[in-house]
Design a protein that fits this description.
The complex is a heterodimer of chains A (113) and B (115). Chain A has 113 residues and is mostly beta strands. Chain A contains no helices and eleven strands. The chains are: A mainly beta (113), B mainly beta (115). Chains A and B meet through strand 5 of A and strand 6, strand 10 and strand 11 of B.
């Protein structure tokens, strides 16, 4: 039972490049989430998805794009990476709705030079 | 503005001592409340959650939390901490149940354990 996985685990890129972070879950959970974690800010919601082809913005969505063509995958794309997007990114999923228990992936550490 | 506050950035307690981590929120109605724990290099794991009913909630790993409406607080407690409890703890809130509700996390409290 793989659960929820993220790839890559570490990524270094340059300003202006497009970067895609992958998230895959094996539970057929309806909801999926993307967060970024920065020192002093806790976790901030970037985007979430209630089901395939249904996505909505979170608190810090500018500069990010998501898609969800399949229930199990929820990729996050930085269209033109900036230094301020250097962060640790966590994907999570939940069986039910926004109030249900969320299960987190191990995170992707992204550095933008 | 709506917010979740964890006043303590870093707490150190001795192994075997009791623990209380504070969480305050600023929402009008009773929100949905959560505590998550993050071990070093890991994702977050749910410790407990409160929606309604008994204001004292039991969670995993011997943790409990008490919802106090009058103080807008949801503090996490453990009677006797173990070295393995060293981690970062996050309080989270969903302000109200609707299709537009979003979860908001506090900035976290890092717990260190003194041998």
């Amino acid at each position: 039972d793989a659960g929820i996985t993220q790839s890559p685990r570490y990524k270094i890129t340059e300003t202006g490049r497009q970067v895609t972070l992958m998230c895959h879950q094996t539970w057929s959970h309806s909801y999926m989430f993307w967060y970024r974690q920065d020192l002093g800010h806790g976790l901030r919601l970037i985007y979430y998805s209630a089901a395939a082809d249904i996505t909505d913005k979170g608190e810090v969505s500018d500069g990010y794009v998501v898609s969800r063509s399949k229930t199990e995958n929820f990729p996050l794309t930085l269209e033109s990476a900036t230094r301020s997007q250097t962060s640790v990114y966590f994907c999570a999923s939940s069986l039910g709705d926004i109030t249900d228990t969320q299960y987190f992936g191990p995170g992707t550490r992204l550095t933008v030079l | 503005a709506q917010s979740v506050t964890q006043p303590d950035i870093h707490i150190t307690v001795s192994e075997g001592a009791s623990l209380e981590l504070r969480c305050n929120y600023s929402y009008g109605a009773t929100p949905y409340l959560f505590w998550y724990v993050q071990s070093p290099g890991q994702g977050l794991q749910l410790l407990l959650k409160y929606f309604s009913g008994d204001t004292l909630v039991q969670g995993i790993k011997g943790f409990e939390a008490e919802f106090k409406r009058s103080q807008s607080s949801f503090n996490l407690r453990k009677p006797s901490v173990h070295w393995s409890d060293a981690a970062e703890y996050f309080c989270a809130v969903v302000p109200g149940y609707s299709s537009a509700s979003k979860i908001i996390f506090g900035s976290g409290t890092r717990l260190s354990i003194r041998p």
